[in-house]
């Protein structure tokens, strides 16, 4: 059995940030773990570590053991009438996962050794985010946000999956990750935003290419060749509605052409006594040079006392020939360039894959305020005819895991983007 240990990630929060006391608890006003009367700086941190036995079923499947983990922190201080926040996100995927990431049926995205990663979730670079965010009030209750990051998140898509409370107990990335929120690790990001009351609008320019396979370099510099715009509506603290569109210039190393990405999402959180629920519903679309690819995601986490139940359903259109043969369209976007054979064949249209994950976990220990949970999940797939020969008629995958979280007396840092948290 191949040994994998997944990501150690560092994310630091943002102005007007929020936190939650449990996996699915609605965010509340952020407090600071390291405030002192003599210092203007306010600091906060959070972390999560999974130890996961992973089995992916069918002919393309296999087993491995790994650890998905991250650490979050934040440094913020007042500057005049505004606030300045420094965000940082680090990952040890390159050391703990290896270059090929972990097994995940029907997942694609990024490349290794001039070949696309197929049926695997890619690792992250050592530097996932390093950002400065300045937020200042204007007249008539308007607020201006300016942010810059050599590596960070442009204004595109919902909250990234590892920061959503609705996905906090699920150890794997959604199959729709590269249709919804894969730009959370974009290069050379500049963002401006304006908000008033429950409404906010943000726009970004950034470098659109996905990170290369060298996970230890701090940044893959490039031109500011891509853009995005995103709107938020937060009618109350427990609800966030998002819509966004972006132009990505040549995002994939091996895939020709640009991508226009559109997303929309709704997130809802509620806590009532010992019960807490978090729900996200999202739709994404990638318009590519060959075809258009749609994805739908719905995920929920419900905590009741020491028990947590979670589920995720996805239905998405995938690149048929990429998953079957490992090749992208050639110079003609509707023809397939068969590597090594010097010929082209007509490209296949997208195929629709469905995946349903059901899981549960229980808090088994609270040692010195460290939360230790034990859980498992099971994933069933709806396999289209095009993949029955390669992936099987009814593959089934599962994970058995332990999750460890350190003390967080001021609450968990969840549901956050680079420039702000849900509030």
Written overview of the protein:
This protein is mostly beta strands and 423 residues long. It has a single domain (2-405), classed as Porin, CATH 2.40.160. It is built from 4 helices and 25 strands. The chain has helices spanning 93-96, 177-180, 320-325, 388-391, and strands spanning 2-3, 10-11, 18-19, 28-29, 42-56, 62-66, 69-79, 82-90, 102-112, 115-121, 127-137, 142-152, 186-196, 199-207, 226-233, 239-248, 259-272, 275-287, 292-304, 307-318, 335-338, 343-346, 351-367, 370-382, 396-405. A 16-stranded antiparallel β-barrel has the order 5-7-8-11-12-13-14-15-16-17-18-19-20-23-24-25. It has a two-stranded antiparallel ribbon with strand order 3-4. A hairpin with a 2-residue loop joins β23 (351-367) and β24. The longest helix is centred in the C-terminal third of the chain and has 6 residues, at 320-325. It is globular, with a radius of gyration of 21 Å. The protein starts with a strand and ends in an 18-residue tail after the last strand. Residues 1-33 have low confidence and may be disordered.
């Amino acid at each position: 059995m191949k040994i994998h240990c997944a990501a150690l990630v560092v994310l630091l929060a943002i102005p007007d940030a929020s936190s939650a006391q449990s996996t699915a608890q609605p965010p509340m006003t952020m407090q600071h773990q390291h405030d002192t009367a003599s210092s203007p700086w306010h600091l906060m941190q959070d972390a999560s570590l999974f130890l996961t036995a992973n089995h992916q079923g069918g002919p393309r499947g296999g087993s491995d053991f790994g650890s998905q983990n991250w650490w979050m922190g934040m440094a913020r201080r007042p500057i005049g009438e505004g606030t300045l926040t420094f965000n940082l996100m680090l990952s040890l995927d390159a050391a703990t996962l290896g270059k090929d990431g972990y097994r995940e049926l029907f997942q694609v995205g990024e490349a290794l050794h001039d070949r696309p990663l197929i049926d695997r979730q890619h690792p992250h670079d050592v530097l996932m985010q390093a950002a400065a965010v300045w937020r200042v009030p204007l007249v008539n209750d308007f607020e201006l946000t300016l942010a810059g990051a050599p590596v960070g998140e442009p204004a595109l898509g919902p909250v990234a999956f590892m920061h959503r409370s609705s996905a906090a107990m699920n150890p794997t990335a959604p199959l729709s990750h590269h249709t919804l929120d894969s730009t959370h690790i974009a290069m050379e990001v500049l963002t401006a935003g304006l908000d008033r009351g429950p409404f906010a609008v943000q726009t970004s320019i950034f470098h659109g290419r996905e990170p290369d396979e060298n996970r230890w370099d701090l940044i893959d510099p490039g031109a500011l060749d891509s853009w995005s715009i995103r709107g938020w509506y937060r009618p109350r603290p427990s609800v966030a509605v998002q819509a966004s569109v972006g132009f990505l210039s040549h995002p994939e190393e091996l895939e020709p052409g640009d991508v226009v990405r559109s997303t929309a999402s709704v997130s809802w959180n509620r806590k009532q006594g010992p019960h807490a629920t978090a729900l996200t519903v999202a739709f994404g679309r990638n318009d590519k040079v060959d075809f258009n690819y749609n994805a739908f995601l719905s995920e929920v986490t419900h905590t009741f006392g020491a028990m947590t139940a979670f589920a995720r359903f996805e239905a998405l259109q995938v690149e048929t020939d990429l998953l079957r043969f490992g090749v992208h369209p050639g110079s003609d976007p509707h023809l397939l360039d068969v590597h090594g054979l010097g010929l082209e064949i007509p490209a296949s249209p997208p195929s629709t894959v469905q995946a349903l994950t059901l899981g549960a976990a229980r808090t088994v220990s609270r040692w010195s305020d460290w939360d230790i949970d034990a859980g498992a999940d099971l994933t069933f797939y709806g396999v289209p005819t095009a993949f029955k020969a390669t992936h099987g008629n009814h593959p089934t995958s599962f994970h058995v895991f332990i999750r460890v979280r350190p003390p967080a007396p001021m609450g968990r840092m969840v549901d956050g983007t680079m420039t702000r948290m849900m509030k």
